[in-house]
Model the fold of this input.
Amino acid sequence: MRHPWKTDIAPSSITPESVWQGRRKFLRSATLAPLAVGTPSIALATPSNDPIGPALLASRNAKWSADEPANSWRDITSYNNFYEFGTGKGDPEKYAHRMQLTPWAVKIDGAVRNPMTLDTDSLRKLAPLEERVYRLRCVEAWSLVIPWIGYPLSHLLKHVEPTEDAKYVVFTTALQPDSMPGVRQPILDWPYVEGLRMDEAMHPLTLLTFGLYGHELPAQNGAPLRIVIPWKYGFKSGKSLARIHLQREQPTTSWMRAAPQEYGFYANVNPDVPHPRWSQATERRIGTGFFASRIPTQPFNGYEKDVAGLYRGMDLRRNF
Ligand code: MTE
Done:
């Protein structure tokens, strides 16, 4: 991703210490048995350092879970992008705990018959929580496997009753300048804004997410709630949501505004369409060690059979 004061070195070419240290943890986590739907959520891997924070139980949804070992809690919570807290991968873990998480309100409005503002607890109780193991592929060509906890966003959208004008959903994330050192920098046009077409937002894979590894989301992963869209580059999955707005027009998202030639509205994972400054054909799985081979990136991040139909007839090179 591009920052006005940085060089053109792809962040993916920098090796953080956590990658070196994470190797053993990842290997240990590779001996996992899948859980059936309905079993209470216990972490599928036993990360070498235990998850922390309030527990959040959910039933595993096997249908929508990747059959791959999850990364350790440590990998998932220490190697983050959350630019409101700085551009370093370790900055969110260092600073995001300063975010004010209570009270928290999410406004859901726009082209809906039933607009509302809900606190975290009411949102969490709106539908049964599920544990889903999703791959997360960052546009910087690294990836993680994460056992998220949440429910399909479609439940919330149906609850507010979209009108015929609801063609797009706009996600605006929290802006707390006093606790977010990154927003004093001209990295992006704050607050962070992302968006989906209505059919993408209603897709059963699109998860309104409240936790991971059997616990509430840590601040650095987007507490108290975020969106996760596993077939798109990670930047589409906005953290710490403050507003969900339905509208007729396609929104201009923060990354489109910052670098329109590099980041498009769709941002579907696509190994055939390189980023202008690096290839998207392969990825580095965090936690496997710097010398581990890169793995091939799959179209739509491996969710092709589930989502390709949404884009039938579209030129995915133009609509990147
Ligand atoms: N949401 C906000 N509000 N701010 C951000 O900087 N970064 C995005 C996305 N959501 C970001 C955000 C990017 S680039 C990625 S790859 C994912 O969050 C990373 O999620 P994770 O840190 O939980 O793995």
User: Anything to note?
Assistant: The first helix runs from residue 17 to 28. The chain has one domain: 11-311. Confidence is low (pLDDT under 50) at residues 2-44. The pocket of MTE is lined by residues 80-84, 136, 138, 144, 173, 192, 221-222, 234-235, 237-240 (CB under 6 Å).
